[in-house]
Amino acid sequence: MTDRGSQHRHCPVCGKTMGAEDRFCSKECEDALVKQRKKQQRTMYIFMGVLVVLFLVMTMAGGQCPGLGTK
Ligand SMILES: [Zn+2]
Fold first, then answer.
1. Total domains present in the chain
2. Which residue(s) pair with 10 in the sheet?
3. Which of 13, 42, 46, 49 gives 20 to 30 Å between its CA and that of 3?
4. Does residue 66 lie in a domain region?
5. Which of 34, 10, 6 minimizes the C-alpha distance to 22?
6. Distance 18 CA to ligand 1 centre (A)
7. Whole domain around residue 44: which residue ranges?
8. Which residues are near ligand 1, the ion (C-beta closer than 5 Å)?
9. Distance in Å, CA 66 to ligand 1 centroid
């Protein structure tokens, strides 16, 4: 690990150099990341919902059709 000595960070959105205390180079980039996070979160909720539905369907199907998955 090398210490470059310069106190600066890079914007996680566009990669631009910025001050060490800044989290984003601009308000636009912050909004972009927040939007992206929300989208990811929504996708995860949908995915989890699909998994739960799949699980319920499989459980019900297994109960109604014994022998289908046992062999
Ligand atoms: Zn940026």
1. 1
2. 17
3. 13
4. no
5. 10
6. 9
7. 9-59
8. 11, 13-14, 16, 25, 29
9. 57
- The stretches of 1-71 forming alpha helices (DSSP H) are 27-64
CB 31 within 8 A of CB 23: no
Angle among Cα 53, 55, 57 to the nearest 5 degrees reads 70
* 31 within some domain: yes
- Say if 64 falls within a structural domain: no
Tell me the HSE value of 60 on the side-chain side, using a 13 A CA sphere.
Answer: 6
Show the tokens assigned to 10.
């890079």
37 C-alpha vs ligand 1 centroid, how far in Å? 15
Least confident of 8-17, 24-33, 35-44, 60-69: 60-69
Q: What is the mean pLDDT of the chain?
A: 87
pLDDT in tens, 22-44: 999 999 999 999 999 999 999 99
